[in-house]
Amino acid sequence: MAVKVLIPTPLRNLTNNQAEVLAEGGTIAELITNLSNSYNGLRDRLVDENGKIRRFVNIYLNEEDIRFLQGETTVLKAGDQISIVPAIAGGK
After folding, report:
1. Bridge partners of 43?
2. Which CATH number fits domain 2-86: 3.10.20.30, 1.10.10.10, 3.60.130.10, 3.40.50.300?
3. Which pTM does this prediction carry?
4. d(CA 15, CA 89)
5. Mind listing the pLDDT tens digit for each residue in 1-38?
6. How many angstroms separate the CA atoms of 4 and 63, rounded?
7. What is the Cα–Cα distance from 5 to 90, expressed in whole angstroms?
8. Running DSSP on this structure, what letter comes out for residue 64?
């Protein structure tokens, strides 16, 4: 089952400058694995060495933060939309 994944500007160089891609996966973790198979280097930007989503990466399933769902084990269904939003810090 395909879901739409919205790619933030800082990661588009890994997806051939595509702002959105379609990917397969029954859970967020499977989706990330499948994305990394298609787009080299993307996994390293999204998860740490233990497979946990990096602290500064926010992932939304249909506008709901997956941290308030089941995290990486959140179940996906056809037609879902995933948004990857890197945290922004800095300024004065």
Report:
1. none
2. 3.10.20.30
3. 0.89
4. 24
5. 799 999 999 999 999 999 999 999 999 999 999 999 99
6. 13
7. 27
8. E
